[in-house]
Amino acid sequence: MSENNLVLYRKYRPQSFKDFVGQEQVTKVIMNEILTGSISHAYLFSGHRGTGKTTMARIFAKAINCQNRKGAEPCNECPSCREINEGRAIDLIEVDAASNRGIDEVKALREGIRFAPTFLKYKVLILDEAHQLSKDATNALLKIMEEPPSYVVFILATTEANKMIPTISSRCQKFNFHKLNHDFIAQKLNVICKAEKIKIEKDALDLLISSADGSLRDAEAKMNQLINFVSDTALTAGDVREILGLSDINLAVELTDILAQKQKAKAMKFISDNTEKGLDIADFLGMTIDYLRKIMLLKIGTELIDIAMPSETNEVKEKALKQAEVFEEKRLAKTLALLMDAENKTKYSSIPQLPLELAIIESFED
Ligand SMILES: [Zn+2]
User: Fold this and answer.
1) E runs forming strands in 55-172
2) Which CATH number describes the domain made up of 182-244?
3) Is the pTM of this model over 0.85?
4) Separation of 28 CA from ligand 1 center, angstroms?
5) What is the third-level CATH fold of 23-177?
6) 118-160 pLDDT, tens per residue?
7) What is the pLDDT of residues 135-146, one digit of tens each?
8) Which CATH architecture describes the domain 249-364?
9) Residue 215 phi/psi, 5° resolution?
10) What torsion, rounded to 10 degrees, do the Cα atoms 39, 45, 51, 53 define?
11) What is the 64 CA–ligand 1 centroid distance (Å)?
């Protein structure tokens, strides 16, 4: 993600526990540890991208080093807090294993533990995307974790906890960060829009949030991309789609109609026409699978509409309910499975639309 797109993310990054909302369970346990003075030497924060792992790590680092803590909260005013907030604390070491592989991270780990902290109470090492640490760094880390100096706290963050080696993860206290829900992200973005004077229609904001897939950082980065296009008239869903290069949900709705009615020739023409117009087949398949899954949920119970489609427009919702009525349950499940298969094959196909065409033909067979 480009640095330019992270301006809003940095500007509105929470600086204390009370502002860090959306992961209540994690916050509650961590605050309690700070209050009771029972912090661990190593933490593993795992979960979806952009859900607050490193933000929480920084607030935690501040709280355990704060000279004037109020309850569990860092004061954000004492020299320790200010050092960390201004990014100049030498005792807070952040390593991004995804972009910083090898020698540097081993060095950072060794330096990190060699001396007691110079200024802060604890040396805090935040290792982002820790599952990507090089072998040497992993070994160095393991060695330190076997006999950690009392002044060191490790916070390992990862989007793929299953790839962490067990000898390391078993030494960590584990916290899981879940995807953030639509309403929560909407709340945050509305605050930003108000402060930054960004005018945007509700539909447009909903579309942006849907495309961020539960990641607040992604949503803020996308909002950042819109800033240059802000004017006196509010941005519409169409504007957002165009600026962010999102596929049009109406295309998924249209293809679903064709599939529900088993119109083979029309389906082939639909694909051919849209491929010619430059439709990104992989992206389109992802969206269509997501949409059909929602139809399946609606088929099971129409009262699931708010769970299945929290952010769709009323027009799309009405259409989806009708399609759920028409589409046979068995065929719906079969079509979904075939499209998922096609999605994988699309990456390797020299004719990008071919796996989709074959999947559709197969879905029409009894
Ligand atoms: Zn402080």
Assistant:
1) 92-96, 123-128, 152-158
2) 1.10.8.60
3) no
4) 20
5) Rossmann fold (3.40.50)
6) 888 899 999 999 998 888 888 888 988 888 889 999 999 999 9
7) 888 888 898 888
8) Up-down Bundle (1.20)
9) -110, 115
10) 60
11) 9
